[in-house]
Amino acid sequence: MNRWNDFVQTISAPRFRRALRWLFYVALLSGFYVAARSLPWRGVLHAMSDASPAWLAVAALINALGLPLWAAQWFQLAPREGRQSFWMFVEIAAVVGAIQNTLTSVGGGASAIVLLISRGGLSRGEAVSLYAMDQVLTGIGKILVVGLAVLLLPLPAWHAAKWLALSLVIATLIVAALVGVNLLMPASSSSRGMNRIVNFLRAQVTVFTPFVIRASGWPLALVAVRKATEIATGVAVQWACGIPVSIGAATAIIAATDLASVIPTTPGSIGVFEAATLFVYGFFGISPALALSAAFLQHAAHLLPAIGIGYAVLLFKALPSERTSSAARE
Questions:
Q1: Which of 35, 154, 198, 322 is the most buried (most CB within 10 A)?
Q2: Crossing angle (nearest 10°) for helices 86-102 and 66-77
Q3: Are 101 and 268 in contact, with CB atoms under 8 Å apart?
Q4: Whether the Cβ atoms of residue 25 and residue 268 lie closer than 8 Å to each other
Q5: Which of 110, 68, 82 lies closest to 313 in space, CA to CA?
């Protein structure tokens, strides 16, 4: 038991986790470098230059629709008493989206809670509960997209059943691992940990329950619509690149990128998004040059509106305060 405690303390040490993080990034960059050397970059650039600017603009506009939908989702989740205007939630969602795509998902979550408190007028418990419920709804949306992709992909029935069985096995292993860790921990520390969890849940249930009730209505529908806009963005990029239009391929790309983004890697999923898209289009028989060009353009259609709108909100919201402060100094 002492060896187990020493092992837990070792892997929990900040220095050890920092070393693992750097090792992961080095391995990831090494994999990108090896893969990049074998890619037809001239063909990629040629395919990108031949893409239709009009359809690319349509893709960016469709993807930009996700921002007001996300803001509407938060607006519906927020308590009605003392709730700020819808446009305030649009500003908050824009800034959070920009931070998530330029920094990390952890930074985006922290900024979301801070902005919901400072700009949205929510209490700390309400802000944490709203963001937690948003993440739950996002997870439900990802599950729906993965299920739709399995239905639309040209897979035999036995193959789809095998994927479902594999998912159930992985979920069972995760639960078994959690139970095993709890059993292997010393009884005193295990009981203290369980008491802290129970006390925390009791303290949060009165705040979190109203968010769960509100999420079962419009917010859940808005998640589905947001995912539909992401799929429509992929279809527009297919039109732009001259790829045969396939809703199944566009859905599979969103499903693959959603699964790849479960583990935080690079800011904005740069490299991970392209690798997942290249894999999906390879399954559909698209050439690597055309597939990679579509991956770059679709990722740009996602990043540019999110980052541009978010930092534009920061800029125009900061200018009035700067003018006011300068006028006060004069």
A1: 35
A2: 120
A3: yes
A4: no
A5: 68
